[in-house]
Design a protein that fits this description.
mainly alpha, 1 helix, flat
């Protein structure tokens, strides 16, 4: 659901920032378009 999607992405982004890592997500879920800043569409 939308709430859990946002919570998981927030957690992943938080951990990415804390560890100075890159987060790569491959998905067909269009809900992420409004959450993820940088996107590459193929």
């Amino acid at each position: 659901d939308d709430y859990n999607t946002e919570q998981v992405i927030a957690l992943l982004k938080e951990q990415t920032a804390l560890t100075n890592a890159t987060l790569l997500i491959v998905t067909h879920d269009n809900r992420l378009k409004s959450i993820i800043e940088k996107q590459i569409e193929l």
